[in-house]
From TrEMBL, chain A:
SUPFAM superfamilies: N-terminal nucleophile aminohydrolases (Ntn hydrolases). The keyword Manganese does not apply. Component of the proteasome complex. The 26S proteasome consists of a 20S proteasome core and two 19S regulatory subunits. The 20S proteasome core is composed of 28 subunits that are arranged in four stacked rings, resulting in a barrel-shaped structure. The two end rings are each formed by seven alpha subunits, and the two central rings are each formed by seven beta subunits. The catalytic chamber with the active sites is on the inside of the barrel. Component of the immunoproteasome, where it displaces the equivalent housekeeping subunit PSMB6. It comes from Perca fluviatilis (European perch). This is Proteasome subunit beta. The active site is at 65 (nucleophile).
Automatic annotation (TrEMBL), chain B:
Gene3D superfamilies: Glutamine Phosphoribosylpyrophosphate, subunit 1, domain 1 (3.60.20.10). One of its GO terms (cellular component) is cytoplasm. The 26S proteasome consists of a 20S proteasome core and two 19S regulatory subunits. The 20S proteasome core is composed of 28 subunits that are arranged in four stacked rings, resulting in a barrel-shaped structure. The two end rings are each formed by seven alpha subunits, and the two central rings are each formed by seven beta subunits. The catalytic chamber with the active sites is on the inside of the barrel. The active site is at residue 17. It catalyses: Cleavage of peptide bonds with very broad specificity. Keywords: Cytoplasm, Hydrolase, Protease, Proteasome, Threonine protease. It is found in: Nucleus. The proteasome is a multicatalytic proteinase complex which is characterized by its ability to cleave peptides with Arg, Phe, Tyr, Leu, and Glu adjacent to the leaving group at neutral or slightly basic pH. The proteasome has an ATP-dependent proteolytic activity. This subunit is involved in antigen processing to generate class I binding peptides. One of its GO terms (biological process) is proteolysis involved in protein catabolic process. Its EC number is 3.4.25.1. GO terms for molecular function: threonine-type endopeptidase activity. It comes from Perca fluviatilis. This is proteasome endopeptidase complex.
């Protein structure tokens, strides 16, 4: 059953398996209620909207999200919100969606949490191996192509929108966008995730080529907080990182420090 | 980017569209694009005007199914002019909005149309009301609607300030429409803008090639 298969994928993070029991008779329902919190119970019960099991236990974990990456002369700035949802429940309100792939290469993840974590793990391995073979730091374009290869090959099964960003010696700061479907394209600035729809206008009007690093950080923080205010699946804190030859600098902007925009 | 369901799941000709209205110091600016499409694949009109005058100082923009919107607007114009004759005074903006709301709410099962009503009246000055798909009516200082509006929420939240001057507000509205038309495939054409103040009504049409251009164009 489709839902069944998805639940397995969703909860098979880090190889932990949940057992599936067949549907039992009514007399066991009392026991099941107590056991439900300790051992998730997957079968037709979830899809038939049993009262004892909350709605969100039947939903896949998703990073409905807002992510952004901007190139500047000498590096890139990346940013993301911090909300992971299962349906209406916020499973993690302090998620880190900025995942290191290599010393100077990061990816921003959006879409299914399980899918993006799995792909990122695979690419981290492949890139690490490649870098050892080459005996030099890998190119951002290589990382992006590895993401594209996985996302395109398994496009029917996956739900993952990824931004690959980093610095390398050959081309400096680069941002590559690998959306659902497995296309790859380099862009000076790129946004993704469910909340990105709301900030296309803001980004189109406020981005200019040749911004400095601090301007990029301000632009990313402003754009993300606007998206977080409008998108229900985005929220929490803003995580920022800037990647350059010198290294990676990470920053967190807490909820009460976000720039405020309230017109109505 | 993410798969997104558009709200234009309407049959027939739809105003997949961008509409907006904003109050400034002394009046309102109402604007819309001018594209009508069938299912996002065929542009059936490049130059329709979605800003309808329902009374001397009251305008309404339509979104959703074009047929429904036109029918509702026609009925609303009639009701409003009758009301205005009975009251022997120009109607209030909230009266116009309420008429639209009644029609949308009472017929919510058959209709798929939303409206932004804006104008100026002597009692409350410049006002903007939005009547959504199911018939909710609320007043806001600035509001956007239609399929193209999703792309400019961030821009409007960041850029709109209450009590701007008329020129600032006009520039703000033109920019917002241009940005939305640049990203939404079912919005486009020319930008129709109307400025309503106590002293009168001014129409501004900005053709496609005169719209503001942004960094990647």
């Amino acid at each position: 059953m489709m839902i069944f298969g998805n639940l397995f994928t969703a909860l098979n993070l880090k190889g932990v398996n949940y057992c599936c029991l067949p549907v039992t008779e009514r007399s066991n329902r009392g026991k099941m209620a107590a056991a439900a919190s300790m051992m998730p119970y997957f079968a037709q019960q979830i899809s038939s909207k049993n009262d004892l099991v909350p709605d969100w236990m039947g939903q896949e974990v998703s990073t409905g999200t807002t992510i952004m990456a901007v190139e500047y002369d000498g590096g890139v700035v990346i940013g993301a919100d911090s909300r992971t949802t299962t349906g209406a429940y916020i499973a993690n309100r302090v998620t880190d969606k900025l995942t290191p792939i290599h010393d100077r290469i990061f990816c921003c993840r959006s879409g299914s949490a399980a899918d993006t974590q799995a792909i990122a793990d695979v690419v981290t391995y492949q890139l690490g191996f490649h870098s050892i073979e080459l005996d030099e730091p890998p190119l951002v374009e290589t990382a992006a192509n590895l993401f594209k290869a996985s996302c395109y090959r398994y496009r029917e099964e996956l739900s993952a929108g990824i931004l690959v960003a980093g610095w390398d010696r050959r081309k400096g700061g680069q941002v590559y966008c690998v959306p659902i479907g497995g296309m790859m394209v380099r862009q000076p600035v790129s946004i993704g995730g469910s909340g990105s729809s709301y900030i296309y206008g803001f980004m189109d009007s406020n981005y200019k080529p040749d911004l400095t690093k601090d301007q990029c950080l301000d632009l990313t923080a402003a754009a993300l907080s606007l998206a977080m205010e409008r998108d229900g699946s985005s929220g929490g804190v803003i995580r920022l990182a800037s990647i350059s030859e010198a290294g990676v600098e990470r920053k967190v902007i807490l909820g009460n420090q976000l720039p405020k925009y309230s017109t109505h | 980017m993410e798969k997104r369901c558009t709200d234009s799941q309407v049959k027939g000709v739809s105003t997949g569209t961008t509409i907006l209205a904003a109050t400034f110091d002394g009046g309102v600016v109402i604007g819309s694009d001018s594209r009508a499409s069938i299912g996002g694949e065929y542009v059936s009109s490049k130059t329709i005007n979605k800003v309808i005058q329902v009374h001397d100082r009251i305008f309404s923009c339509m979104a959703g199914s074009l047929a429904d919107a036109q029918a509702v607007t026609k009925a609303a114009k009639f009701h409003l002019s009758f009301h205005s004759v009975q009251m022997e005074t120009p109607p209030l903006v909230i009266a116009a909005a309420s008429v639209l709301k009644e029609l949308c709410y009472k017929n919510k099962d058959e209709l798929q149309a939303g409206f932004i009503t804006a104008g100026w009246d002597r009692k409350n000055g410049a006002q903007v009301y939005v009547v959504s798909l199911g018939g909710m009516l609320i007043r806001q200082p600035v509001t956007i609607g239609g399929s193209g509006s999703t792309y400019i929420y961030g821009y409007v939240d960041a850029k709109y300030k209450p009590n701007m001057s008329k020129e600032e507000c006009l520039q703000f509205a033109t920019n917002a429409l241009a940005l939305a038309m640049g990203r939404d495939n079912v919005s486009g054409g020319v930008a129709h803008l109307v400025v309503v103040t106590e002293s009168g009504v001014e129409h501004v049409v900005v053709p496609g090639d005169k719209l503001p251009k942004f960094h990647d164009e």
